[in-house]
């Protein structure tokens, strides 16, 4: 499928070609540090506390589920392992197994991936109503290996430590060149004929850190993480410490600061710009964020622009022309169901924005929009979240932004009330970025 660009977008090409030299980075790219969830504690390679989605575990009857009841801490969550039919002769009273699998393909901090396996540990907090054996199985491209630990403390949380140096498989041992793609947590109870109730929480994979230090370092890092982190499902937009670290690197690489508090809006429809601008001004006043200079996406002749095709063709030109420090891209359900490789083109646009030292923020469409294929929109959003998450781009969830508003649709488009609700969440996200990334209070 070839990308179709409207004729007026072609008018921007002479300016765009000239602007690409400005947008491209000068000289050789600087050596980037390996990605870490907590940049201040690079020894922590992975942490899952089941408080911020997406989780490395997928809920399924065969893979377990998220739980919030006791013995979880008040307001906290844990993961309940699923019953399995690993033992074929259950009627004969064999010991029962429970398990859950974590998929790490999209987790950015790879391991061992060049690290010495001798320094890697996996610590898991386990709650069980039966004594038994906890096992950790790690899979990589050409094999797997596992370790097993005895658990004798019941009905209270206890840490279980696995060391990569003690893991073994069929002619397979941990090596630095491997990359773990899956981890499976298994538990076998000692009483026969009954499945154990097993919960896991606070999973930490660390390298080069004494196990006794992991929790202290983690809690210190997590406190800072919680203060900065925002979730699409809770606050309506995503933001993390790792994202902030990557965005700081992008702005530094550009070589100069852009115009403070200048926001470029790329709406789903050209007419939406005016409503979003008014809504953002009202929201900024409400949260005492000062005044933002909100500029709409436009063609070289000055006419308003909007929609994915205009975003593809006009964003680089507009980023150069406006010198905006943030570009707000609003995607629609029409974009979600359109033919073509939308996420690939979106990735190219995001790269151009980041190369210019501008911060992209992407609004994903609401799958609850009437008259659209919900499955297609959800698949589109999942694909976008995967791409944008890997690029450390803040994402606004339109569905969450609209949850307290009423009568927000006109057909399958947002009406004025819907756009104002979206503008409110977008302004909150922009203010959060301004405070934490740019240090302006």
Explain this structure to me?
With 441 residues, the chain is an alpha+beta fold. 32% of the residues lie in helices and 24% in strands. It is built from eleven helices and 18 strands. The strands form four sheets. Strands 1, 2, 3, 6, 9 and 11 form a six-stranded antiparallel sheet that branches. The chain has a five-stranded antiparallel sheet with strand order 4-5-10-7-8, with no helix packed on it. Strand 12, helix 5 and strand 13 (293-296) form a beta-alpha-beta unit. Helix 2 crosses helix 6 (308-322), helix 5 crosses helix 11 (416-437) and helix 6 runs parallel beside helix 8. The longest helix has 22 residues, at 416-437. Mean pLDDT is 87; it is low at 1-31.
Short descriptors:
single chain; 441 residues; alpha+beta; six-stranded antiparallel β-sheet; five-stranded antiparallel β-sheet; 24% strand; disordered N terminus
Tally of DSSP helical segments: 11
The multimeric state of the shown protein is single chain
The biggest sheet, with number of strands, parallel, antiparallel or mixed sense and barrel status, is: 6 strands, antiparallel
The gross shape turns out to be elongated
Q: Please estimate the helix content.
A: 25-40%
Tally of DSSP β-strands: 18
Using only C-alpha atoms, the radius of gyration works out to: 25 Å
How are the secondary structure elements laid out?
Layout: H1 7-10, H2 13-23, E1 44-48, E2 65-67, E3 78-80, E4 82-83, E5 95-103, E6 120-128, E7 132-140, E8 143-151, E9 158-163, E10 182-192, E11 198-207, H3 211-228, H4 241-254, E12 259-266, H5 272-286, E13 293-296, H6 308-322, E14 324-330, H7 333-337, H8 342-355, E15 359-364, H9 374-390, E16 395-397, H10 398-401, E17 409-410, E18 413-414, H11 416-437
Parallel strand pairs: 12-13, 12-14, 14-15, 15-16
Antiparallel strand pairs: 1-11, 2-3, 3-11, 4-5, 5-10, 6-9, 6-11, 7-8, 7-10, 17-18
């Amino acid at each position: 499928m070839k990308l179709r660009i409207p004729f007026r977008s072609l008018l921007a090409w002479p300016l765009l070609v000239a602007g690409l030299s400005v947008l491209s980075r000068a000289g050789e790219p600087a050596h980037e540090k390996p990605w870490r969830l907590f940049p201040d504690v690079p020894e922590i390679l992975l942490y899952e506390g089941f408080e911020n989605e997406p989780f490395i575990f997928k809920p399924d009857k065969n893979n377990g589920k998220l739980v919030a009841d006791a013995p979880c801490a008040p307001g906290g969550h844990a993961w309940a392992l699923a019953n399995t039919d690993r033992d074929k002769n259950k009627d004969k009273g064999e010991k029962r197994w429970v398990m859950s699998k974590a998929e790490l393909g999209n987790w950015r901090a790879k391991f061992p991936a060049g690290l010495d396996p001798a320094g890697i540990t996996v610590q898991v907090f386990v709650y069980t109503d039966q004594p038994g054996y906890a096992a950790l199985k790690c899979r990589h491209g050409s094999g797997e290996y596992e370790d097993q630990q005895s658990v004798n403390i019941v009905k209270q949380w206890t840490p279980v430590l696995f060391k990569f140096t003690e893991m073994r498989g069929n002619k397979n041992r941990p090596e630095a060149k491997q990359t773990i793609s899956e981890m499976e947590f298994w538990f076998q109870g000692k009483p026969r004929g009954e499945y154990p109730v097993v919960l896991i929480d606070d999973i930490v994979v660390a390298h080069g850190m004494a196990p006794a230090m992991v929790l202290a370092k983690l809690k210190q890092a997590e406190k800072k993480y919680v203060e900065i982190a925002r979730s699409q499902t809770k606050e309506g937009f995503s933001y993390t410490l790792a994202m902030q670290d990557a965005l700081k690197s992008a702005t530094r690489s550009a070589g100069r600061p852009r115009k403070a508090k200048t926001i470029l809006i790329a709406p789903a429809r050209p007419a939406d710009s005016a409503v979003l601008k008014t809504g953002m001004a009202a929201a900024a006043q409400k949260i005492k964020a000062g005044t933002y200079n909100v500029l709409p996406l436009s063609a070289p002749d000055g006419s308003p622009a909007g929609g994915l095709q205009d975003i593809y063709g006009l964003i680089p030109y507009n980023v150069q022309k406006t010198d905006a420090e943030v570009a707000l891209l609003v995607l629609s359900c029409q974009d979600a169901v359109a033919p073509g490789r939308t996420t690939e083109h979106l990735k190219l646009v995001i790269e151009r924005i980041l190369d210019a030292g501008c911060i992209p923020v992407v609004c994903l469409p609401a799958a609850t929009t009437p008259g659209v294929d919900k499955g297609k929109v959800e698949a589109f959003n999942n694909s976008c979240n995967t791409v944008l998450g890997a690029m450390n781009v803040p994402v606004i969830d339109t569905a969450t932004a609209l949850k307290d508003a009423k009568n927000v649709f006109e057909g399958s488009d947002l009406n004025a009330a819907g756009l104002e609700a979206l503008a409110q969440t977008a302004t909150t996200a922009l203010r959060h970025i301004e405070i934490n990334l740019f240090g302006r209070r």
